[in-house]
From TrEMBL:
Domain of life from the UniProt record: Bacteria
Swiss-Prot/TrEMBL keywords: Signal
InterPro entries, per database record: ConA-like_dom_sf, Ice-binding_C
Domain Ice-binding protein C-terminal per the UniProt entry, residue ranges: 254-275
One Pfam family from the record: PEP-CTERM
Signal sequence coordinates: 1-19
Record keyword Zinc-finger present: no
SUPFAM superfamilies per record: Concanavalin A-like lectins/glucanases (SSF49899)
Protein's UniProt name: PEP-CTERM sorting domain-containing protein
Taxonomic placement: Bacteria, Pseudomonadati, Verrucomicrobiota, Verrucomicrobiia, Verrucomicrobiales
Length: 276
């Protein structure tokens, strides 16, 4: 079934400039591999102790980070290319996320820097997978985001972005205007690339499910049988926050004046900053 896209304006949005960070992973390339850093533990720099660890094959660290960025939580990126390499949270999604807190904060934001090695494995390559409940994916057809609702994928779209192998991109998926509607919820799903809104679609009478009993995966889904969903490339600065984070407060600062084209793909330097 085709979904009709609409471009949302900030005036009609509940986007916030400050939100509650739930998870933020930094990577230290000087450690060589994930297994050699802190006993194989990837530290959650949000202060919430939602730490991660190796799942399936061990990823390595890379010194390749987005050009012109400041180090925020790590001095390197995570290299998950060439195999089923995954970082998984030590807790399940239902132990980290709460629908009531999403309502109280107006939504949820997932953001990450990604540098694709190739076109992936042909489909649904998961850069970040919140237990199969809320994902950011990339393959040769573009970037997409997906929301699971009570076992059924009801909210998704794909940005018509060609394969950008070897190019760093900041990607953010935002659940905005998340409100109670009877026994379910209404929300807007938005996709940003390099701080620029690409797509937005409104959904009514659905409830995202975070009760699947699965871990958060960086580089693929973190449950058994997820080899077909592995991402191939570099990952930097993944962050998950309660609230619909405004582009001005992503882990990216968009140069002024903001351009309608994909900032950064044309060679503009993009500066990271730490959210206050």
């Amino acid at each position: 079934m085709k979904i009709r896209y609409t471009i949302a304006t900030l005036a009609a949005s509940s986007l916030v400039t400050h939100a509650t960070t739930l998870i933020q992973y930094g990577f230290d390339f000087t450690s060589g591999t994930v297994a050699s850093q802190n006993g194989g533990v990837v530290t959650d720099d949000s202060g919430n102790a939602h730490h991660g660890g190796v799942k399936f094959n061990t990823p390595v660290y890379s010194s390749n980070i987005p050009t012109g960025t400041q180090n925020v939580t790590g001095v390197g990126s995570l290299d998950v290319s060439g195999g089923h390499h995954t970082i998984a949270s030590t807790q399940n999604d239902s132990d980290i996320f709460s629908i009531s807190e999403m309502v109280a904060n107006g939504g949820l934001t997932v953001e990450v820097w990604a540098n694709q090695s190739n076109s992936g494995n042909g489909g649904n390559a998961k850069i970040i997978a919140i237990g199969g409940a809320f994902d950011i994916e990339m393959d040769s057809t573009g970037i997409s985001t997906f929301v699971n609702s009570s076992g059924n994928g009801v909210a998704s779209f794909t940005n018509a972005l060609a394969d950008r192998a070897g190019t760093w991109m900041h990607v953010a998926a935002v659940i905005d205007n998340f409100v109670v509607d009877g026994g379910s919820h209404d929300f807007d799903l938005k996709l940003y690339i390099n701080g620029t809104l690409q797509d937005s679609v409104a959904y009514n009478d659905v409830t995202p499910s975070f009760a699947l009993g699965r871990q958060i995966g960086i580089g693929s889904q973190a449950h058994s049988g997820s080899g077909d969903f592995r991402y191939d490339g570099l990952i930097y600065e993944p962050r998950i926050s309660y609230g619909a984070v405004a582009p001005a407060d992503f882990t990216i600062v968009v140069p002024e004046p903001a351009s309608s084209v994909f900032l950064g793909l044309g060679g503009l330097a993009l500066i990271l900053r730490r959210r206050k």
